[in-house]
Write a structure and sequence with these properties.
1 helix, 5 strands
Length: 87
């Protein structure tokens, strides 16, 4: 979830997984997978940065493939906990 501000200065918290694309027209218009559009004060670059920061925080302590953890050969998925190959 990321914090943003509508054009009327009302804050909102957005589930960033629902973002389909962002347009600058010149306002920042966020189109969601639900079909809804939200116009915000933040620039497209700010929105993308907040999404990256949020995801980095989520993955930082959970995913072994982040921050110097073990690597997986390109094109291969990590092995599932039950030992099956993730591919």
């Amino acid at each position: 979830m990321i914090r943003l501000t509508r054009l009327n200065h009302v804050p909102l918290v957005l589930n960033s997984d629902l973002i389909e694309h962002i347009e600058v027209t010149p306002d920042t218009v966020i189109s969601l997978t639900t079909g809804q559009k939200i116009v915000v004060l933040e620039s497209a670059e700010e929105v993308v940065g907040r999404v990256r920061e949020f995801r980095r925080g989520i993955l930082g302590g959970v995913c072994p493939l982040v921050a110097g953890g073990p690597t997986v050969p390109e094109g291969r998925l990590p092995m599932a906990e039950d030992g099956r190959d993730g591919q």
